[in-house]
Specification:
The protein is α/β, with parallel strands linked by helices. It is built from 14 helices and 17 strands. The chain has an 8-stranded mixed sheet, sandwiched between helices. A 6-stranded mixed sheet has the order 1-6-5-2-4-3, with helices on one face. The protein has a 3-stranded mixed sheet with strand order 11-12-16, covered by helices on one side. Strand 14, helix 11 and strand 15 form a beta-alpha-beta unit. Helix 3 packs parallel to helix 4 and helix 7 packs antiparallel against helix 9. The radius of gyration is 24 Å and the shape is elongated. It starts with a strand and ends with a helix.
Length: about 475
Amino acid sequence: MREIKVSAREGTPEETSADTRVVGLFEGDSLRDPALQRLVELGEAKAGLKKVALAHEDAPGGGQRRVLIAGLGPRAEFGPEQARVAAAAAAGRAKELGAVSLSWAIPAGEELVAALVEGTLLKLYRFDRFKSSPGNDDGAGLETLELAGDAVSQSELELGRVAAEAANAARDLQNLPANVATPTFLAARATEIAEEHEALEVELLDREAIIARGMEAFAAVAAGTYEEPRLIVLRYRPSGAVGPHLAYVGKAVTFDTGGISIKPAAKMQEMKMDMSGGAAVIEAMGAIARLGPAVTLTAVVGATENMPSGRSVKPGDIVTAMNGKTIEINNTDAEGRLVLADALAYAVEQGAERIVDVATLTGGVLIALGHTHCGLWSNDDDWYRTVEAACEATGEIGWRMPLHPEYLELTKGTTADLQNASDQRVAVSNYAAEFLRQFVDERPWVHVDIAGTAWGSTRNYLGKGANGFATRMLIDLAHRAR
């Protein structure tokens, strides 16, 4: 995707040199320009959110330029999420019109600069790496985005730009086919990010090292693939760090056939995106290092394929996880929790005091919450509220789901401590969360199941494909977890 230059300018919106500018319209408000207000009175321009009307005006130095009147809805209901939606609607219209430079007149309100940038950059994302003919508009498109207003916050602008670019980078990883985005490819991407930042270091564990560290659960999932697995560890250690040691743990199954418990063929191609949690963690770490919050943070990503072969783990096999718990593998398609079990235990060993894991873990969460909310589970109310606040701030919203001793009882094995799947196919997402809880050593922890939200969103700034869900939430969380 073409990089869009983002800048701020103080002064009146009309002074911009952009070929297209955007004016927001709240319900019940009037526009300062009589010509534009006339369009409102005629009903051509509407204040409803997502509504965009086109007008023209004289440009400084002569000629005409476009003015987009973007509906903002009721002023009392307008916040960062509405700003993203309005920005995306304007960006989509600007793209249709062939705009090269776009200038937004910032509506009054806090934290809107970052949201306007995010809505624009997320909306204009496209993935055409493998198209021999990208389309008639190849080489065209928006080149600059300007935010115009009084005392525009440069830090907010930078936050929005970096967060959106990180989410779009995670989308690239999601969209890459599994023959490209292998575990070693993800490891190379993590290495590339670490090399760009002095405060970031990377450690990579190969198959032999994973086994040597006692990660039999992770190794069992990787047993059937001829692609090398990797445990990817990124450590962010800025000077002057304060607060608890955080850990972000991501599932990165780069292709999930289900293993011996093989999935149906229909839509199996989507399983290239079963690494979405790991993609979000990796790209969020790069953005965090760029923004520089004073927090100690360790990221742990378990990357492997889940493939059937003569050496694959079999239903009924028993393995021992890194923390010593034994697991009966009753279903090899419940592999994500095995990968995360050892990744979580590794994060605990690294000294993590607050943990978040992100994974496309269960189809059950899609049935429960659809594409709107991710599922959130937590063993600590205070830590949950901090994570929830990050979700709300970024529009990557979640809904708290229950943990309960009766769900835990279902995870108990017959001949081992735990079983990765129960014969009772009930509350499968809660079951998976209780399973993972056994590997966090009672540290404050939030499990984020993004199986319903990593792709397929109906939000206008994301589209229906890969969307990098949780990347921006993790970036925000690093700034508020003090």
